[in-house]
Design brief:
Layout lengths: L2 E5 L2 E4 L4 E8 L7 E7 L5 E7 L8 E3 L7 E6 L4 E6 L8 E8 L16 E2 L3 E6 L1
Parallel strand pairs: 2-11
Antiparallel strand pairs: 1-3, 3-8, 4-5, 4-9, 5-6, 7-8, 9-10, 9-11
Amino acid sequence: QVQLVESGGGLVQAGDSLRLSCAISGRTLSMFAMGWFRQESGKDRTFVAAISRGGANAGTRYEDSVQGRFTISRDNANNRIYLQMNNLKPEDTGVYYCAAKGGVVFATIVTDADSYTYWGRGTQVTVSS
């Protein structure tokens, strides 16, 4: 049974930083392509960032509005991924979910929410203006 648990959310002011963490259990992280998604109240989940299975040289992709402000990374040895969020804006507010997709080749980056198999329960990020 694969489980994902997010942490690190909170209430911050515009311009602040947060670091989200997602711990995976049940399988080793290196088997999965991973992603972060955001869901605002009453809306669908939207893509934020994704990372391939690789370690230090893993490929990454970002939604345009977070490019240059957010960084996704992974620590396969400790079965965690991270989302470093800098210069936060009120429009970054939402519940952030991490997701895992297995059965992909090493370099695959997955940006489509429907393609992911496993999801965490999310962590709330609120950015005040």
